Amino acid sequence: MAESTETNVWRDLLERWPKDMPHKGVIMTELNESIPFVGFAYDDNLMVVQRQTPDAIGARQAIIPFRAISYLKITAIVLPKTYTEFGFKGTMPKV
């Protein structure tokens, strides 16, 4: 089965994650569920995230297929130049 473009995009982004940037953020799923995380691992199709505190049913980890990810929020404070390490072009303002 061929991978979708979205799968490749998320895996590629995680592979370029800067070494000095904390693995902290929030995954937003296509079902509009927000999943905060403080660490992650991944393979070709899935991402497993570690939560700092358990969710309502007691889960500390969640395994998410890349195709279910709508977008990613980064909650760590990072320098604007960090995004160029991800491969983004352009400049971000210092805030």
What is the end-to-end distance? Answer: 44 Å
Number of strands: 6
Radius of gyration over alpha carbons? 14 Å
Low-confidence stretches: none
Main sheet properties: 3 strands, antiparallel
Specify the helix fraction band. 10-25%
Briefly summarize what is shown.
The chain is of the alpha+beta class and 95 residues long.
Please describe what this structure looks like:
The chain has 95 residues and is of the alpha+beta class. It has two helices and six strands, in the order αββββββα. It has one domain (5-86): SH3 type barrels (Roll). The model has no long low-confidence stretch (mean pLDDT 90). The strands form two sheets. It has a three-stranded antiparallel β-sheet with strand order 2-1-6, with no helix packed on it. The chain has a three-stranded antiparallel β-sheet with strand order 3-4-5, with helices on one face.
List the helices and strands and how they pair.
Layout: H1 5-15, E1 25-29, E2 34-37, E3 39-42, E4 46-50, E5 61-65, E6 69-74, H2 82-86
Antiparallel strand pairs: 1-2, 1-6, 3-4, 4-5
Short descriptors:
alpha+beta, 95 residues, SH3 type barrels, 17% helix
